[in-house]
Amino acid sequence: MEKKSLAGLCFLFLVLFVAQECVLQTEAKTCENLADTYRGPCFTTGSCDDHCKNKEHLLSGRCRDDFRCWCTRNC
């Protein structure tokens, strides 16, 4: 009886592992583009993120090393 429950538990973990791998493979790829309407130098990622989400209706945004706002979207 104990071997059956151990085998069942191992099978359950195997199914959960395979299901998790399938989810990771189906995630959408993202691309970064320069924000179209952001004005001025980008110093705070929070303001860039708000701009990309609210004004350009994209996923997110961040300031990069070139002090410009870059928005993230699905490719």
Automatic annotation (TrEMBL):
It comes from the Eukaryota. PROSITE patterns: GAMMA_THIONIN. Residues 30-75 form the Knottins-like domain. InterPro entries: Defensin_plant, Knottins, Scorpion_toxin-like_sf. Residues 1-28 form the signal peptide. Keywords: Antimicrobial, Disulfide bond, Fungicide, Signal. One of its GO terms (biological process) is killing of cells of another organism. SUPFAM superfamilies: Scorpion toxin-like (SSF57095). PANTHER family: DEFENSIN, DEFENSIN-LIKE PROTEIN 1. Belongs to the DEFL family. This is Knottins-like domain-containing protein. It comes from Phaseolus coccineus.
